[in-house]
Amino acid sequence: MALFDLPLDQLRGYRSTAPEPQDFDSFWAKTLQEARAHRLDAVFEAVETGLSAVRVYDVTFAGFGGHPVKGWLTLPAGASGPLPVVVEFIGYGGGRGLPHTHLLWAATGRAHFVMDTRGQGSGWSPGDTPDPVGSAPAFPGFMTRGVEAPESYYYRRVFTDAVRAVEAARAHPLTDPARTAAVGGSQGGAIAIAVGGLVPDLAAVAPDVPFLCDFPRAVTITDRDPYREIGNYLKSHRGRTAQVLRTLSYFDGVHFAARGRAPALFSTALEDQTCPPSTVFAAFNAWAHDDKTIEVYDFNDHEGGGPFQEAAKVRWLASRL
Description:
alpha/beta, Rossmann fold, 9-stranded mixed beta sheet, 11 helices, 32% helix, globular, AB_hydrolase_fold
C-alpha cells in the first residue's frame, strides 16, 4: 500500500478538531469513583509454567462494576526488592494468551503485568475474561457495542478495567508503584493512552500504532476494520451519526492525551490503514507532557516497527524506569 495520508511534514503539525465533551473529566471521575466503590481484591496465584527464569502469577482483580478481570504478572526469578512494573494492554480481538508469550519485560529485570481484555480473546490470542454487560444491537466486533450512549459504551468498561489493572499491578509487594509504565500496541496503545490520561502518576507511557484516536477523521479516512465497523453500523442505523460521534468523543485518545502527565514514546507507520498516521499524530501532538517522542516507520503498515520498536522501547525505558 502506497502512502495515503498526509505528508510527513504536515503530519508533524497536524491537530485534531474533534470536539471534547464539556463533562469529559467529570464523566471519567464518576466512572472511576463507581469502580472504586468495589474492593480491588487483587489475587495473585502462582502457576507452574516450566519457565525457570521467571515466576508467573495468575491474577484476578475487580474491574468495572466489580466484574472479575484476569491478568498475568511475570517477575524475574529470585527478585526480592521492589521492581519497576510495565503494565501492558492487548491489541484488538486478543486476550492475555499464555505466560510464555510475555517474556520481554521480565527479561529486562522488571515486573510485567498484562491485562486480559474483557469479552475478547477468541481471535489471535486466547482470553479468559467475559464481559457480563449486554448491549443494544451492534455490528459484529466491539466498536459499536453500547455506542448509543457513553454510559453504555464498551470501552468505558475496558478503560476502567485498565486503570484498575494498574492498581492491581501496584498492589503486589514486589512492584514499585512509583516506577510504573503503561504500554501496548493498536487497541493496547489506545488503552495505554487512556490510562496515561486517567492515572496522574505514571513514570512512562509507550503506545504503538494506537487505535481509537481522532474518531471523526479515522472513520472517514480508512475503510479497514475495526474503524469500518462504525460505518457499517451507521449504514443500517441511519441518522445516528451525531449521536455516535458524541459517544465516541468520551473515548477519543486525543482527549486523554491532552491530560497525559508522563513522558511518552509513540510510534506510527506511514502505510498504516488500520490506524492512519494522522490519527496517531493527533494524539501525539495533543500529549501534554513535554518529554515526548514519536518513532516513524516509513514503509510499514499496521505491524509498525515490530521488534525494532520493542528494542526502541527497551532503550527508552532504561532511563525512565
